[in-house]
Amino acid sequence: MSKQIKTSKFKDNLKARSEEAKTVRKIVTIIIMTLLIILVIGGASGYLYVKSALEPVHPDSKEEIKVTIPIGSSSSNIANILEDNGVIKNALIFRFYLKFNNESSFQAGDYVFTPDMELSEIVDSLKSGKLLAEPVYTVTIPEGKTIEELAEIYAEQLPFSKKEFLEKVNDPDYIQTLMERYPSVLLEDILNPEIRSPLEGYLFAATYEFFEEEPSVEAVVDEMLKKTESVLSDYLDVINEQNYTVHEAITFASVIEKETGAKDQRKKIAGVFANRLEKGMKLQTDPTVLYAQGEHKDRVLYEDLEIESPYNTYYIEGLPVGPIGNFSETALEAALHPEESKNLYFLHDKDGNIYYAETLEQHNKNKQKHIN
């Protein structure tokens, strides 16, 4: 074999090995990248899985679930019983939760749980032997109530006074602790010194059950803020998309809530307000005047419209400085999804009918026809 042929063969072999090495490197790179992707996805999935398992089964459900914990049950037995009955999402995660928090000494008995209970509440019940068969108090908070009205409702049914409730919800130190506990709901906006009460509008209208003989104001407020947080969590992305802050969205919803009890009209009314805001017109809505005055009146007079208050939308431009009462989910929906129209005015007649107008001229005609 000639030297030239040997050289050529050597080069061919070298080239082949070089190509083979490149192929091996590519395969190794692909394998490593694939493994990294699997690890990242697996880690994220694992985090979300555990996070979900630590949350209530159904945050809005008050369905009673009767559970019997036999004498001598281990933590594993209890976890399996709770999972089988739909009280918790995952028995294994629940057992890790117990170990991590060093929880034990559970009591046997017949319990009644609800799917909206936090793991901490379930554990407390099992440790104390508190059988949640029936709530001691059931309190319904209607929509559109101010924090003063809300305090009156609780004072009539629970063992604390209106004064005690209002002092607690207006205590700056307490508000700070709540802001730390509910950072997605309670933001710096509520600390505006012009706001009458920092939690005004943030305590959601719903029916609440309390299982203690003497629930504290803190326990009541905590239940209400949990509900507010639960409702708002589904709307945070939309609120951001609409360029509102949470405070502005709640304020807008509270105005719509107070303006009409007709749920089918709320999006249309929200559309009028949105049009006025866009054009730089004052909202000029009577419920804000009444809130600014701090008293209930059957009819707003012209002299009332002149009150100089950051809540009075005849006096200020834009939304009030804060909510004027609590809101319902339909009012929040309307605030975030107003009906499109060219209407800039509306009015109610004595029977509750609502008449809309695109121009002031048409609005005045509606006044003459339906009001005067």
What does this structure look like?
- The structure is a single chain.
- Helix content is 51%, strand content 7%.
- By secondary structure, it is mainly alpha-helical.
- The strands form three sheets. A two-stranded antiparallel ribbon has the order 1-2. Strands 3-4 form a two-stranded antiparallel sheet. The chain has a two-stranded antiparallel ribbon with strand order 5-6.
- The chain has three domains: 65-128, Dna Ligase, domain 1, CATH 3.30.1490.480; 137-233, no CATH class; 244-370, no CATH class.
- A hairpin with a 5-residue loop joins strand 5 and strand 6 (354-357).
- Helix 2 crosses helix 3, helix 10 (246-259) packs across helix 13 and helix 11 packs across helix 13 (329-336).
Q: Short summary of the structure?
A:
The chain is built from 14 helices and six strands. The chain is mainly alpha-helical.
Give the arrangement of secondary structure elements.
Layout: H1 3-53, E1 65-69, H2 75-84, H3 91-100, E2 109-113, H4 119-128, E3 137-140, H5 147-157, H6 162-169, H7 172-181, E4 207-210, H8 217-233, H9 236-241, H10 246-259, H11 266-279, H12 286-293, H13 329-336, E5 345-348, E6 354-357, H14 360-370
Antiparallel strand pairs: 1-2, 3-4, 5-6
